[in-house]
Write a structure and sequence with these properties.
Distance between the termini: 122 Å
Order of helices and strands: HHHHHHEHHHEHEEHHH
Mean pLDDT: 87
Structural class: mainly alpha
Helix content: 55-70%
Number of strands: 4
Strand order of the largest sheet: 1-2
Low-confidence stretches: none
Length: 352
């Protein structure tokens, strides 16, 4: 019976694959403007996974319903939760920016006046932000399924202790950053970079908070969330994790991701934890450095750590240029005075 169903699904699979090949190889190159040709690879890297999902759906009608809605919620409830998640992130970002609004900004932008970030978001940026908001929501749904059914995630308040709260909280960041630093470096590998991660690096100087943090390829979003799940799975075996610790972890995880894409000089240190917005700005300016986010020791071990460069040399150059300009103005003024005095003398001699 299964064989006959698979045979029936062959035409649908062929149609999906053929349509995908036509779109990616013929339609995209024609309709994307020449100045935006660099978007072709990321768009292809989004279309092909969608085609694979549609192929799986053609062979099993429950694939997409379970993927998008594992709790089988009614549509209005699902949409309501999605909106609540978006509002929650917006409130979190507003609170963060309110607290750090008086924090000094990173010096590089001030010293190097020519340094510019991504001045305006384009259609593809909004497309990826919208897609990633759905990816985040779907991940939360499946994480809830996992938490409710996994015995290593502690739900009872009576079983809360230092190990499954404070220690597990610390180890979650440690493990996640280990997996992320490795996968982040992989996404910078030459053959992979233009397809996925290069889109995020169109912004050399992050400043918009969530909009710059979430402006990444959906596959990159999946890789990052995959690192989080691997960390949860590993640490739950090692220490068990209390659900309260996990809830706090995800909120601080989102908070730090937003902070990492602002221009403010925020940093935290302690017990090997080394969070610095400046370190992540260096990564955006020098993509082959600072792959980690919370424990820069991973970069030290990989030989990719790069300390912050505040661009003071650019300020010196501009000061030197200003001084040179002032000197030139003085010289020109002296020359003008000399020419004036010589002309007046000549006029006086003529009158005599």
């Amino acid at each position: 019976m299964d064989i006959s169903n698979n045979i029936k699904n062959i035409p649908a699979t062929c149609i999906i694959l053929a349509s995908t090949m036509i779109i990616t190889n013929y339609i995209l190159p024609i309709y994307i403007p020449p100045k935006q040709k660099h978007h072709i690879k990321p768009i292809k890297a989004l279309i092909w996974p969608i085609a694979m999902l549609l192929t799986l759906q053609s062979s099993n009608v429950n694939t997409l319903p379970y993927l998008f809605n594992p709790f089988q919620l009614k549509l209005h409830i699902w949409v309501g939760l999605y909106i609540m998640k978006a509002i929650g992130l917006g409130i979190l970002e507003s609170i963060v920016l309110c607290f750090i609004r008086n924090t000094k900004k990173l010096k590089y932008r001030e010293n190097n006046k020519r340094a510019k970030g991504l001045e305006a978001l384009q259609i593809i940026d909004y497309l990826f932000l919208f897609a990633n908001s759905f990816v985040e929501t779907i991940f939360v749904h499946h994480l809830c399924v996992f938490v409710l059914n996994d015995k290593y995630i502690i739900k009872s308040m009576d079983e809360m202790n230092i190990i499954n709260t404070f220690l597990s909280f610390y180890l979650l960041f440690l493990a996640d950053d280990f997996f992320y630093a490795i996968s982040h470096r992989f996404m910078h590998w030459g053959p992979i970079y233009p397809w996925i991660h290069k889109h995020h690096h169109r912004q050399p100087l992050p400043e918009r908070g969530y909009l710059d943090a979430g402006n990444e390829h959906p596959l990159e979003q999946l890789i990052g969330l995959g690192c989080v799940f691997l960390a949860i799975r590993l640490i739950s075996y090692v220490t068990t994790i209390h659900i309260v610790s996990m809830f706090i972890y995800f909120n601080i995880y989102a908070l730090l991701a937003i902070l990492n894409h602002t221009p403010y000089d925020v940093k935290f240190y302690g017990f090997g934890f080394e969070y610095s917005v400046a370190a992540h700005e260096m990564h955006h300016r020098n993509p082959k450095s600072n792959y980690a986010q919370y424990f820069m020791y991973w970069d030290v071990l990989m030989g990719t750590y790069k300390p912050y460069d505040d661009g003071a040399r650019y300020n010196k150059k501009s000061n030197n240029n200003n001084n040179n300009n002032k000197m030139m103005e003085k010289m020109n003024n002296i020359k003008k005075k000399k020419t004036r005095s010589s002309s007046t003398k000549s006029n006086q001699s003529k009158k005599k």
